[in-house]
Design a protein that fits this description.
3% helix, globular, 192 residues, mainly beta
Length: 192
């Protein structure tokens, strides 16, 4: 077994538990993804009777979120977006970097600042709300969403929260007002 102590991000997809932004063996490895069988996710040592393994993404980034879109799992880091697909065999999962920016432009700013809407990721970046989907090559700064989200305080990135409210068909972006330490404002975006 390996010495994983904690993970900043956890999700279940395709019968597998994925962990990201790992603390293991006394060190934080922000760019590492570990995965294990959903029936015993903490037993991450390789074995022939279950799925387990790891993948290091680009050095210097931190994994902030996993989000299933269609039949693929996406991994959003502080500097990139990765597509994870089940490939079977010894490799189990394939990782493809689909977007990268060294300064994090167009990249997610906080762990809870993302949601899925109609097969696309909607998420907060430093300068507003962007979208990304299965058939997108770069994050999309949809003009009306970007303009509407200009007042969102992205400095307190860990306090941002994005959710899709299906009955109303609205994307809710909650955030703290400047100088506050808890979310106190919510922006409602209606993509209909």
């Amino acid at each position: 077994e390996i010495g994983m102590r904690s993970a900043g991000v956890v999700t279940v997809w395709n019968g597998t538990v994925f962990f990201g932004d790992i603390e293991m063996d006394g060190a934080r490895v922000g760019c590492r993804v570990l995965w294990g069988d959903v029936t015993n996710p903490l037993l991450l040592a390789p074995a022939s009777d279950r799925t387990s393994g790891f993948q290091d993404l680009e050095q210097g980034s931190t994994i902030l979120a996993f989000l299933p879109l269609g039949d693929q799992l996406y991994c959003f880091t502080s500097r990139s977006i990765w597509r994870i697909v089940a490939v079977g065999g010894e490799d189990q999962y394939g990782f493809q970097q689909v977007y990268f920016h060294a300064d994090g432009e167009g990249c997610l700013v906080g762990r809870h600042a993302i949601c899925a809407v109609a097969g696309e990721a909607v998420y907060v970046v430093r300068d507003g709300v962007y979208r990304f989907g299965n058939y997108t090559t770069v994050p999309d700064r949809t003009e009306w969403m970007w303009r509407a989200s200009g007042s969102v305080n992205t400095e307190a990135c860990e306090l941002l929260s994005v959710a899709y409210h299906q009955p109303l068909g609205e994307i809710w972006v909650s955030y703290p007002a400047a100088g506050q330490s808890t979310p106190s404002q919510t922006l409602a975006l209606s993509p209909r």
